[in-house]
Inverse folding.
């Protein structure tokens, strides 16, 4: 209990500049923890949605039925995420282009892939949301804390210059106040850096899975487009 009170005293007795630095670091730490938890929940949701959609997609169900099911859920206010978003973008464009008799199979596939690439960019933006803030907190917080430390030590030595007795007890409180700012900077930076590295790796995993699905789905669409054009030629 005494250590907590002494630490609180150090914060309260620090100069206004050092207190402002500490307040900034506390705010950055609280905000980064909020975003860490928020991103963690989002990645769990995205992973669950991806696994559920993969099971439904490879179960052999009709693609039109799968698209219709997603449309019904979207109409009910459900947000379509990740892999299913790519599927819906590609299948919608494929269905639109396949109705045009002048389009060949390659053109249909290219249009579907272009729509999926646009959807992929949107999904990457969703996955990387708030990660830049975590990177900024992780890279700048130690320097902000160091600024508070340097300022506090300068303030302490200025007080020492005007003191009649230059003892360790005279400068120790001021230096301790300054070092608290460094500790707070590290406290804000370390979780942000760890979360940023972990989440960046998870983004790469999601993007690789999406790329693989896009290639597999493109092959399936090409076979369907080729078969459709053959039937149209036979009917003509």
């Amino acid at each position: 209990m005494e250590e907590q009170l002494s630490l609180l005293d150090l914060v309260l007795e620090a100069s206004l500049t050092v207190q402002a630095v500490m307040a900034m670091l506390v705010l950055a730490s609280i905000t980064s923890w909020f975003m860490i938890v928020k991103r963690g929940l989002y990645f769990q949701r995205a992973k669950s949605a991806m696994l559920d959609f993969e099971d439904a997609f490879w179960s052999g169900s009709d693609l039109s039925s799968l698209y219709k099911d997603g449309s019904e859920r979207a109409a009910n206010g459900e947000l379509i995420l990740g892999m299913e978003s790519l599927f819906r973008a590609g299948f919608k464009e494929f269905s639109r282009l396949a109705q045009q008799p002048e389009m060949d199979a390659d053109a249909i596939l290219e249009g579907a892939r272009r729509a999926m690439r646009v959807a992929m960019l949107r999904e990457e933006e969703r996955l990387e949301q708030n990660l830049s803030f975590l990177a900024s907190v992780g890279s700048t917080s130690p320097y902000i804390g160091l600024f508070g430390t340097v300022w506090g030590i300068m303030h302490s030595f200025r007080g020492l210059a005007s003191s009649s007795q230059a003892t360790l007890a005279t400068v120790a409180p001021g230096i301790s106040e300054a070092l608290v700012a460094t500790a707070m900077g590290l406290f804000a930076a370390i979780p942000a850096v760890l979360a940023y590295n972990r989440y960046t790796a998870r983004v790469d995993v999601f993007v690789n899975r999406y790329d693989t699905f896009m290639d597999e789905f493109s092959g399936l669409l090409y076979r369907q487009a080729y078969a459709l054009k053959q039937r149209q030629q036979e009917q003509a």
Remarks:
- Residues 1-5 have pLDDT under 50 and may be disordered.
